[in-house]
Amino acid sequence: MSRSVRWVAMVAAAVALCACAAPTMRVGDGASHAPADAAWVALDTDGDGVLSPGEVEGQHLVALQEDWSNADLDGDGRVSHAEFDAWWPWMTRVPEPGSMARLNASSRR
Fold first, then answer.
1. Which of 19, 34, 64, 92 minimizes the number of CB atoms within 10 Å of its CB?
2. Domain span at 43
3. Are 35 and 26 in contact (CB under 8 A)?
4. Do 80 and 68 form a contact (C-beta atoms < 8 A)?
5. Into how many domains does the chain fold?
6. Can you give the three-state secondary structure of the chain, one letter per residue?
7. CATH value at residue 60
8. pLDDT tens digit sequence for 11-70
């Protein structure tokens, strides 16, 4: 799968997850955690506090499936809530202007 297709898939997954999110609330450090928390609740289908590859596959969350090694910081094969919270901002970041054009240009090489 090309990099631009993966990027589009990640953005689509982020939009889908954010659609189920509750209204944004501010937390003590000023960061908004409501979308990540809502996504976590939707993904942790067995409620055990960690995400397994099977749970993510069942939700068809391609972005997390393809970036599993970056999300699973301790390499135990599962993504904890803390690991997910660390991964989420990267997943939902807004690309800087022109980055898609640069990505497309680099994928043609």
1. 19
2. 3-95
3. no
4. no
5. 1
6. CCHHHHHHHHHHHHHHHHHCCCCCCECCCCCECHHHHHHHHHHCCCCCCEECHHHHHHCCCHHHHHCHHHHCCCCCCCEEHHHHHHHHHHHCCCCCCCHHHHHHHHHCC
7. 1.10.238.10
8. 555 545 544 443 333 333 444 567 788 889 988 999 999 999 989 887 877 888 889 999
